[in-house]
TrEMBL record:
<dbReference type="InterPro" id="IPR006683">
    <property type="entry name" value="Thioestr_dom"/>
</dbReference>
<dbReference type="InterPro" id="IPR006684">
    <property type="entry name" value="YbgC/YbaW"/>
</dbReference>
<dbReference type="Pfam" id="PF03061">
    <property type="entry name" value="4HBT"/>
</dbReference>
<dbReference type="InterPro" id="IPR050563">
    <property type="entry name" value="4-hydroxybenzoyl-CoA_TE"/>
</dbReference>
<keyword id="KW-0378">Hydrolase</keyword>
<feature type="domain" description="Thioesterase">
    <location>
        <begin position="30"/>
        <end position="116"/>
    </location>
</feature>
<dbReference type="InterPro" id="IPR029069">
    <property type="entry name" value="HotDog_dom_sf"/>
</dbReference>
<dbReference type="GO" id="GO:0047617">
    <property type="term" value="F:fatty acyl-CoA hydrolase activity"/>
</dbReference>
<dbReference type="InterPro" id="IPR008272">
    <property type="entry name" value="HB-CoA_thioesterase_AS"/>
</dbReference>
<dbReference type="InterPro" id="IPR014166">
    <property type="entry name" value="Tol-Pal_acyl-CoA_thioesterase"/>
</dbReference>
<protein>
    <submittedName>
        <fullName>Pol-Pal system-associated acyl-CoA thioesterase</fullName>
    </submittedName>
</protein>
<comment type="similarity">
    <text>Belongs to the 4-hydroxybenzoyl-CoA thioesterase family.</text>
</comment>
Amino acid sequence: MSLISLAGELTETGHRLIQRVYYEDTDFSGVVYHARYLHFMERARTDYLRLLGVEQASLAIEGDVEGLVFVVHRMEIDFKAPARMDDVLTIETATEKAGGAKMILQQQIRRGDALLIAAKVIIAVVNGQGRPRRLPEALATKFLAAQAASA
């Protein structure tokens, strides 16, 4: 198995990651515990960055003098239907905006054709001291390339 398949794949609209639901993801009723969806979406966002060639640790430590860190500023999540143990989920991430001191990502979690979760994630771009900073143009271009391909 290649590392690329482990990290999902870049698509025409952004990124796609496949995840299986395990027992540890479920609550006493056998459905996925609501907070676990945040884990699935975080993994997808991290792998999206990874496949775009963005190494978050390097940005924070070896970047310019200020460093660069991505932090979730706000999330809007619409829980449409539950997932259950052994379901195979597809987590899709698409860039809506990348520029200034923020990025807006749209994420969906599906089981087959069924939409389970729809989320809008606003990411703040900050320096090592937690102060807002502009997303470097080269990084914004990487995020917007997928958005332009889907337009």
